[in-house]
Amino acid sequence: MAIAFTFPGQGSQALGMGKDLADAFPQAAAVFAEVDEALGEKLSDIMWNGPEETLTLTANAQPALMAVSIAALRVLESKGLDLKSKVSYVAGHSLGEYSALCAAGTFSLADTARLLRIRGNAMQAAVPVGKGAMAAIIGLEHSDVDAVCIQAQALGSCQIANDNGGGQLVISGEKTAVEKAAALATEKGAKRAILLPVSAPFHSSLMAPAADAMREALATVAKHDPAVPLIANVRAAPVTDAGEIATLLVEQVTGQVRWRETVEWFAANDVTTLYEIGSGKVLTGLARRIDKSVTGIAINSPADIDAAIQVLLGEK
Q1: Catalytic residue from among 12, 93, 157, 203
Q2: Active-site residue identified among 44, 69, 94, 172
Q3: What is the per-residue pLDDT across 220-269, written as a single tens digit (0 to 9) for each?
Q4: 224 included as an active-site residue
Q5: Strands, DSSP E only, in the chain?
Q6: Is 142 annotated in the active site?
Q7: Which CA distances in Å does 136 have to 149, 181, 224, 274?
Q8: Does the pTM exceed 0.70?
């Protein structure tokens, strides 16, 4: 019986996130101040006061979500949590993988904030607005969605970007190809095939320029082996070597987030509880749909922290 900490990805952002932590705990306030300093701007002001459309920009949402996750983690640590002795694994959904690695000590907080700002800007710049698209396909098997993507590739790049579990897959690529794949998925019996309101075709081959930018950026920062193994997005298996992790982070930009397989791996390896550290409860909901034997618990408020710490300090 083991515990894993998971960290949310883009889409979990909300105006005001982390403000209650900053108000209640100096350790959390210090995280937001350090991220502001690393980025050379008051990201915390955007997070708490908006406007919402500015927070939603990829270059802001990514470091902002990471900051909330690490603020919650620092408060847990201030109350006696030792990550290495209490937590067996970490994982994060897309940008959340960086939060997980910051939590496990692979990157410093300031470097993580800067890496995510570079990542957000590079992903946004990789594809002209309107050329790419993403769509959620609900109610088809992975193999069926893969098949419609392959069919649609006659019109351009199209691939599975996220396997979120519970019959939810997200496809990404050139707009005409994604639209074609969504139509084919409906013909194949998908319950829903919905184009998503995103600014770029994330986790597709069109993100290759962003992958190059991240390879360059990751080469310049200090890296340490994580205190506990990372279950990597593109591998859905544990990784402990910092150099290998950097390679996988580059692959992740154009590769598939294998979240269903990640949760299934946890279940098969005696992980009974996934604590979602940071904004929202998306991963907690996904865990419930993927494997009922795994309990998901979201930690993003002072009350959540108080409840969790009593349990965490009593178990591994």
Answers
A1: 203
A2: 94
A3: 999 999 999 999 999 999 999 999 999 999 999 999 999 999 999 999 99
A4: no
A5: 2-7, 89-92, 132-138, 158-165, 168-174, 192-195, 230-231, 238-239, 271-277, 295-299
A6: no
A7: 12, 11, 36, 24
A8: yes
